[in-house]
Specification:
Layout (H helix, E strand, L loop, with lengths): L10 H6 L8 H5 L2 H7 L16 E4 L2 E5 L12 H14 L14 H14 L3 E5 L2 H12 L5 E5 L4 H9 L3 E5 L4 H9 L7 E6 L11 H11 L2 E5 L14 H4 L8 E5 L9 E5 L1 H10 L1 H4 L6 H16 L2 H20 L10 E7 L1 H14 L1 E2 L1 E3 L9 E6 L6 H17 L8
Parallel strand pairs: 2-11, 4-5, 4-6, 6-7, 7-8
Antiparallel strand pairs: 1-2, 3-9, 8-9, 10-13, 12-13
Helix pairs in contact: 4-13, 5-13, 6-7, 8-9, 14-16, 15-16
The structure holds pyridoxal-5'-phosphate.
């Protein structure tokens, strides 16, 4: 008797054929988010039903917002909203193209002049987002045989920019100036080098040691770039940022900022020498090949800059609130790392505990962000708190009581004896 056919077209072949591997297997195998949802510990993609004010509605419930980067409380400012709406009436809802081709409006140019003046640089260039600003600047400026030297806690978009660039990436320990010096010493002295640091670090809330970075850069012939996403509007005279805060504007080559934090919109900018801005304008791919920032965003930032200048008390209130809350956490015995800004982390340890603390605070009515790897090293998970100029003393005192309860429940602080 003939043996049964068993080729790929036979029934048996079809039954025994191995399931073909698929590109999407990794998606099917990614179950972490589902597992967290199943146990009520999924903290992401929460729907906020109101604007970014000190109180927000989530799931129909009022919560105290301590997780927004709207440091100056400008996203809900009446004049900023009006100017944004007026720009839509004048120019429409989008530019339908990149700055390079059909997407440049007079307000883009006006904004670039104003931003350059704010941070004290000759020129500035506006990108569609802060993320694209960093990737675009690093990828187009750093070429093969050149080096980008970054703080270990630098934002992800700088790292992506390094990956896209043909240059070599070197990382130094967080704010570790001896390590920075040592890493630079090992590089070819004649090679071009760009040191990049955050002004205020986005998770830890501490400041970079800019005076020392600038001294080291000078010794090694390196250029310096500050990612001031969290420093613009928060540090320095009139919110001019980290370089101005340290009186080192002239020593920093490039200053980057976003519109998505203090400046009440979305978008980003880089400021620096005219020739560098001109080069980026003609070589930086996210600038060339992505649609320009929308009229609504650009007008909102122009209005935000006006409000910042006219209402300096916002900056004072922001710092008053930041100091009050930090002192409150420290007196309770929380580990707030080296925060020295409106970003205050509470270091919790492993990620499971971090999510449990987050859930406890959510149930108490507080909106905060849990931060877990890869945003922080394993074992340094934290509850990231950000305070704004809009918080009242009463709100912060109310929050401190609830944090104290959470701290005692999870053994983050000593219990009352
Ligand atoms: C330090 C830092 N740089 C860059 C960015 C990217 O900015 P944006 O979100 O405005 O694109 C962020 C935003 O989270 C940030 O924290």
């Amino acid at each position: 008797m003939d043996s049964m056919p068993s080729g790929p077209s036979s029934i048996l072949g079809a039954l025994t054929r191995q399931r073909q591997a698929s590109l999407f297997d990794k998606c099917d195998n990614f179950t972490r988010a589902d597992e967290l949802k199943a146990v009520g510990l999924y903290p992401y993609l929460r729907v906020i039903e109101t604007g970014q004010a000190t109180e927000v509605m989530v799931d129909g419930r009022r919560m105290l917002m301590l997780g927004s980067n709207s440091y100056l409380e400008l996203t809900t400012h009446p004049r900023i909203k009006e100017r944004s709406a007026a720009a839509i009436h004048q120019y429409g809802s989008g530019c339908a193209g990149s700055r390079f081709l059909n997407g440049t409006l007079p307000i883009h140019l006006e904004l670039e002049r104003r931003l350059a003046a704010l941070v004290g640089k000759p020129a500035a260039l506006v990108y569609p987002t802060g993320f694209q600003t960093n990737t675009g600047v690093v990828a187009s400026l750093v070429h093969q045989g050149e080096y980008v030297i970054v703080d270990k806690y630098i934002h992800a978009c700088i790292l992506d920019g390094c990956t896209l660039s043909q240059g070599s990436l070197v990382r130094y320990g967080h704010n570790d100036m001896a390590d920075l010096e040592e890493k630079l010493t090992r590089l070819p002295p004649a090679a071009n080098k760009l040191i990049i640091t955050d002004g205020i670090f986005s998770m830890e809330g501490d400041l970079c040691d800019l005076p020392e970075i600038v001294r080291i850069a000078r010794r090694h012939g390196a250029q310096v770039m500050v990612d001031d996403a969290h420093g613009i509007g928060v540090l320095g005279p009139g919110g001019a940022g980290t370089a101005a805060h340290f009186g080192l504007t002239g020593e920093v080559d490039l200053i980057m900022g976003t519109f998505s934090k203090s400046l009440a919109a979305i978008g980003g900018f880089i400021a620096g020498p005219e020739r560098v801005i001109n080069y980026l304008m003609h070589n930086s791919r996210p600038f060339l090949f992505s649609a320009s920032a929308s009229p609504a965003s650009v007008a909102a930032v122009l209005a935000a800059l006006e409000v910042m200048a006219e209402e300096p008390e916002r900056l004072l209130r922001l710092w008053d609130n930041a100091r009050f809350l930090k002192r409150g956490f420290d007196e309770l015995g929380f580990d707030t790392g080296r925060s020295d800004s409106p970003i205050i982390p509470i270091v919790v340890g492993d990620w499971e505990r971090c999510l449990e603390v987050w859930r406890f605070l959510r149930d108490e009515g507080i909106f905060v962000n849990p931060v877990v790897p890869p945003a922080v090293p394993p074992g340094r998970c934290m509850i990231r708190i950000s305070v704004t100029a809009g918080h009242t003393r009463g709100q912060l005192e109310w929050a401190l009581e609830r944090f104290a309860k959470a701290g005692r429940t999870f053994g983050l602080i000593g219990s009352l004896s």
